[in-house]
Request: fold
Amino acid sequence: MNARRSLYRRLVPSPSLSVTVVAFWVLMSDSFTLGQILLGMLLGVVVPLFAARLDREFAKIGSLRPVPKLICVTLWDILVSNIRVAIQVLGPERRIHPGFIWLPLDIANIHGIAALTSMITLTPGTVSAALSDDRRHLLVHVLHLDDPDALIEQIKSRYEAPLMEIFP
Reply:
């Protein structure tokens, strides 16, 4: 029985991932045919085998205390940025000064970095463009860049600092 279970575990290292792959494949294929279901099942076996070989970095959650405030800050920044971007886009084009900044990162947790890049990209007028190979700098495109140092300090204090408490 143990040999059978061991073989099953090797062929299907993550049953939940297998089911998810099959479900997404059937939904994305836009047809519920036997062929699509069989192809989805094949992918449901193959994809987790490759995913199991990836070097995983699991999320370590620290304090959740900053989460409510961080959500409020992010929503507020999205609202204010929507208004600011609308004014800039509807105004004279010569008043828009786009640019790139390299944001030095103190956060090392990849999940925290992912959350940071999402918050930056969700805020209108800024887009996360690239992460350096050493994960120490994030390239950010800004629709209107007046003071790069002030923007870096704003991102670090409003987003990165709370994220470092959540993802130590």
About this structure: The beta strands are 99-104, 126-131, 137-142. The two ends are 42 Å apart (CA to CA). The helical segments are 2-11, 15-29, 34-51, 67-90, 110-122, 148-166.
